[in-house]
Each structure stands twice: as structure tokens, then as C-alpha cells.
Design a protein that fits this description.
By secondary structure, this protein is α+β, with helices and mostly antiparallel strands. It is 20% helix and 23% strand. It has one domain. It is globular and about 30 Å long. This is NUDIX domain-containing protein.
Length: 60
């Protein structure tokens, strides 16, 4: 089974959504790597995928 994660990026009561193929809107995210999920993974992927440097992260 594939595992996916999404990142909810909120600033000033606004959330970042990305327009995906077929016109769907979604939170940034992707497939979870075999080595697991961590704050460092979220920071790295957010920068690589959308060019945003994240500082204050809460995992849930």
C-alpha cells in the first residue's frame, strides 16, 4: 500500500493550495519515502516542490 502525506501551510488565516492536473486543488504533498516521515522531510520537500522555507512546523 502506498502512503501519501499532505502539508497544510497556513499564514495569516490563509492556506496554500496548489492547482493539480484536471483542475483539482489540493494541499502540497506526495508519497512518503520508505525511511518515514519527519520534520526534516517536510522542510526539504516543501522547499524542493514549492520553494518555501518552513520554520514553525507542527506534525499531527
Amino acid at each position: 500500500m502506498r502512503k501519501f502525506s499532505r502539508v497544510l501551510i497556513k499564514q495569516n488565516d490563509r492556506f496554500l493550495l496548489l492547482k493539480e492536473t484536471h483542475g483539482f486543488w489540493n494541499f502540497p504533498g506526495g508519497k512518503v519515502e520508505p525511511n518515514g516521515f519527519s520534520e526534516n522531510l517536510v522542510k526539504r520537500e516543501s522547499f524542493e516542490e514549492i520553494g518555501i522555507v518552513l520554520h514553525d512546523i507542527s506534525l499531527f
